[in-house]
TrEMBL record:
Signal peptide start-end: none
Taxonomic source organism: Agromyces mediolanus (Corynebacterium mediolanum)
Region of the whole protein represented: 7 to 489 of 746
GO BP of this protein: trehalose biosynthetic process
Protein name (Swiss-Prot/TrEMBL): Alpha,alpha-trehalose-phosphate synthase
Aminoacyl-tRNA synthetase among keywords: no
Superkingdom classification of source: Bacteria
Family membership noted in the UniProt record: In the C-terminal section; belongs to the trehalose phosphatase family.
EC numbers on record: 2.4.1.15
UniProt keyword list: Glycosyltransferase, Transferase
GO MF annotations, alphabetized: alpha,alpha-trehalose-phosphate synthase (UDP-forming) activity; trehalose-phosphatase activity
Pathway note: Glycan biosynthesis; trehalose biosynthesis
């Protein structure tokens, strides 16, 4: 069979995500091309996609452009177009200014606009239609993240033959917060179209299951939800956690390259060879707790518990969602804080904070991880936080201290980190000092344990576990719960 656009409609495995694993780029002279954006998801799914005759459905990153499907590195790429207005309402609006703050425990106030919701429904329909058209009989369709929560139900209605998985990369909030959403029933109905709904933490799966009970009264047993169908039959949906991870071996391989280690040493020298380099790496986002981290660091300098000759903070804040007003404000606040801290505490040749508002190649990130004595992950809420896992994966020298917020999914697994509540500024300061002063033996002991965890649950393991749960979904006996 062929689709209207001439694509062979026979893909056995389809991934649907807001963004494609490739970006459309035009070089300076206007030559168009495609560049892979090597994220963790691509690395994890590439082998499966190649082996299973897979296709990836998503947006190419530019508005008001339509592209024909094409093959890229053995994966069929099926671009879904978005207009500039849809980008504003569905993506920047409903996804990033309604769902994102709501699902991160309303750290910032979510905006609710009916026209954003209408665009969200419309765009979810377009993604679903692309999958409906491209999927072979009985194919596996794996839908990703909060931008596409209505897609599972749309798929099931049109194609009951499909095996449908959904994975939520961000937290799922407690009912008291979730219930603010004017479209709370529609979103849950959308998700329940899947056979397996995956979350980062057991707590997220629990919040989802409770919301299902509160809003619909469906019976749930452990990770199984019994959804009544129109014919009176009960359909079982699995809702449980599958903590995402990274390509740990890939990161370690980069870290072991001599030129990357040389670059790490150079970074140290350039910073004036301080005793301690602290590092933060985040998208510039209010969920990441960048202000809390800088406040604590500033007070340690003010109180003389740290000095700029001995300790310096490098903060990479990669540009993110710059057209959303909350993100513009956050950038201004952070940059004001950096200026104040450097003005108050910096000395010639010894700034308090080196603040970098750019994205870097992965090799440079790894060199920074190697140069950092203390890695600061102080998110106020974070689905997982891959930066924490990347830092650990790179430290084959068994050195370095990970300071990690309890409000990250990663803290469920990385128990040997120095765990902190970032809202508690005094506690955060004490933890930072404890990290700076931690004896070498203890650093090595903790890092070894952390590394074992990240190596054993890497991203290949994550996708295999999810797909196993999905393709064996019918076989899971009722009442099985997970710990
Ligand atoms: C969402 C959830 C969940 C950042 N700056 C640069 C750069 N990065 C890379 C990091 C890391 C990734 O971006 C960020 O991942 P995180 O997990 O830390 O955070 P989110 O972007 O918020 O991701 C999160 C994740 O989805 C996966 O499910 O863990 O909770 O919010 O890989 O290294 N990479 C490069 N240059 C940069 O400047 N190369």
């Amino acid at each position: 069979p062929t689709t209207t656009r001439g694509v062979r409609a026979a893909y056995e495995m389809i991934v649907v995500s807001n963004r494609l694993p490739v970006d459309y780029v035009e070089s300076a002279d206007g030559t168009p091309g495609w560049r892979s954006s090597p994220g963790g998801l691509v690395t994890a799914l590439e082998p499966v996609m190649r082996a299973e005759d897979g296709a990836w459905i998503g947006w190419a990153g530019v508005a008001d452009r339509e592209f024909e499907p094409f093959a890229h590195d053995g994966i069929e790429i099926i671009p879904v177009p978005l207009t500039a207005d849809e980008l504003e309402d569905y993506y920047e609006g409903f996804s990033n200014d309604t769902l994102w703050p709501l699902y991160h425990d309303v750290i910032a106030p979510p905006s609710f606009h009916r026209e954003w919701w209408d665009a969200y429904v419309r765009v979810n329909r377009r993604f679903a239609d692309a999958a409906i058209e491209a999927a072979a009989e009985g194919a596996v369709v794996w839908v990703h993240d909060y931008q596409l929560q209505l897609v599972p139900k749309m798929l099931r209605e049109a194609r009951p033959d499909l095996v449908i998985g959904f994975f939520n990369h961000i937290p799922f909030p407690a009912y008291g917060i979730y219930s603010q959403l004017p479209w709370r029933r529609q979103v849950i109905e959308g998700l329940l179209g899947a056979d397996v709904v995956g979350f980062q933490r057991a707590a997220d799966a629990g919040n989802f299951t409770r919301a299902v009970r509160r809003l619909f009264g469906y019976a749930t047993r452990g990770s199984i939800i019994e959804v009544p169908e129109e014919d009176g039959e009960l359909r079982r949906v699995v809702a449980r956690h599958f903590p995402i991870s990274i390509d740990a071996a890939g990161f370690e391989e980069i870290a072991r390259r001599p030129e990357v280690q040389e670059r790490a040493a150079e970074i140290r020298r350039n910073l004036g060879d301080p005793e301690t380099i602290m590092l933060g790496v985040d998208r510039l986002d209010y969920t990441k707790g960048i202000r809390h981290r800088m406040k604590a660091f500033g007070e340690l300098l003010r109180d003389g518990r740290l000095s700029v000759e001995d300790a310096t903070l490098v903060q990479v804040a990669s540009p993110s969602r710059e057209r959303v007003e909350t993100y513009r404000q956050l950038r201004d606040e952070i940059e004001l804080m950096v200026g104040r801290l450097n003005g108050d505490h910096g000395e010639l040749g010894h700034p308090a904070i080196s603040y970098l508002h750019h994205g870097y190649p992965r090799e440079e990130m790894v060199a920074l991880y190697l140069a950092a004595d203390v890695m600061l992950v102080t998110a106020l809420r974070d689905g997982m936080n891959l930066v924490a896992k990347e830092y650990v994966a790179c430290r084959f020298d068994d050195d370095g201290v990970l300071l990690l917020s309890e409000f990250t999914g990663a803290s469920d697994e990385l128990r040997q980190a120095v765990l902190v509540n970032p809202h508690d500024i005094e506690g955060l300061k004490d933890a930072m000092i404890a990290a700076v002063e931690m004896p070498k033996g203890e650093r090595a002991r903790r890092m070894r344990a952390l590394r074992r965890r990240v190596q054993s649950n890497d991203v290949a393991n994550w996708s295999a576990t999810f797909l196993e749960a999905l393709t064996g979904a019918g076989k899971i006996p009722a009442g099985v719960s997970d710990s």
